[in-house]
């Protein structure tokens, strides 16, 4: 309705009707003011609805009690659980765990227990390293460990990432390396005892399912099972030492495609490989080799089994070759049995962090 029509309607009202309308509006205004005056005092002091609780950002987890609980169970002078329980739940002996934890404290401020603005101590290195080992050992969701560790799910997810990065930076030169002369002598001795002089290990690949693979990459990374996977190529010896690992190839490729991208034979091609000397059937050789399955090419660096052996000599060779070649597959099985995180589909989004 236009302003002119409103003006005409008001003119039609009698004087007493106009006064009554003004009084009614004033009464409504007074009532509204009274309601606004008492409204803040009628609100509950604590949020009672489920929506209000969900919006609360701070949770008093009492992290000190979480540290004290873990310390009394495993790290006190007379712990509640014996050493075999520690070995089962942390997947390593207690002295090794303490060595790693102390090294991380010295080199990374993330694992140093700090005080917040109120003076309270935050999460300790024991809690963060325990969160890492529980995630790797059991592969469970962060919510499952949050109540026991008294840590937020975000901090539990961050702890394994920092842990593996610091372990690589502090211990990579000692353990993540190629065999030196002493290692080669040991590997050659083991191979000769198993009727394979010159053997440096066995090579194979395994697939790790990628749960959070980006949709745009799903077809490229779809493996044999149809799910996105990433391939790990490894060379392992009989004592389960992985002295070569190459990770990151999409699961749609096979072992030969992985070998084309791998760096396992770069030293041989560039002439930097250590000298290896041994004798086979009266012939002197100077190149070490790895045991493989039938998909690998006919290279001097690979020794494959004999398909369909007929003679007793060939059957004996095939039996020993297939037995020794299982070292790398046994290594994969031990890794997945000890660390369920590797056996389960990986929930990490970043491929580089998966490789670490």
Task: Report on the architecture of this protein.
Helices cover 51% and strands 11% of the residues. It has helices at residues 3-12, 15-38, 50-54, 63-75, 83-90, 94-107, 125-138, 142-149, 153-175, 181-193, 218-221, 255-261, 266-269, 312-338, 340-343, 351-355, and strands spanning 199-209, 229-236, 242-250, 278-280, 283-285, 289-291, 302-303. Helix 6 (94-107) packs across helix 9, helix 7 packs across helix 9 (153-175) and helix 8 packs across helix 9. The longest helix has 27 residues, at 312-338. By secondary structure, it is α/β, with parallel strands linked by helices. It has 2 domains: 63-174, no CATH class; 178-355, no CATH class. The protein is elongated. Strands 3-2-1-6-7 form a 5-stranded mixed sheet, with helices on both faces. Strands 4-5 form a two-stranded antiparallel ribbon.
Main structural class: alpha/beta
Q: Name the helicity range.
A: 40-55%
Enumerate the spans where pLDDT stays under 50 for 5 or more consecutive residues. none
Q: Which word captures the global form?
A: elongated
How far apart lie the N and C ends? 72 Å
Number of domains: 2
The main sheet orders its strands as 3-2-1-6-7
Q: What is the radius of gyration? A: 34 Å
Overall pLDDT score:
85
What is the tally of beta strands?
A: 7
